[in-house]
Amino acid sequence: MSAAVEERSSNEAPYTLDQPAPKVLSFWDQSAFWANLGVSLLAFSGAYTVLAPDAQGTPRLPIVAGILAMVVGTAIGGVMLGLAAVPGTRAGVPAMMLLRGLFGTRLSYIPTVMNILQMVGWGTFELVTIAGAAKELFGGGPRWAYVVAAGVITTVLTLWPLGSVRVLRRYVTVAVVLALGYFYVQLARQPLPDLTHGSWSHFWIGADAALAVSISWVPMAADYTRHSRSERAAFGAASVAYGLTQVVAYVLGLLALALAAGDSSKVFGPFQHVALGTLFFAVFVLREVDQSFANVYSTAVSIQNLVTRTDRRLLTVVLGILTTVLALVLNMDNYAGFLTLIGSVFVPMLGVLAVDFFCFTGRRGWDVSDRAPARWGMIVAWAAGIAAYQLINPGQVGWWSRLWTHAQSTLHFTPADWMSASLLSFAVAAAMTALIGALNRRQATVHPDPASAR
Question: To which protein family does this belong (predicted)?
Answer without folding.
Answer: Belongs to the purine-cytosine permease (2.A.39) family.
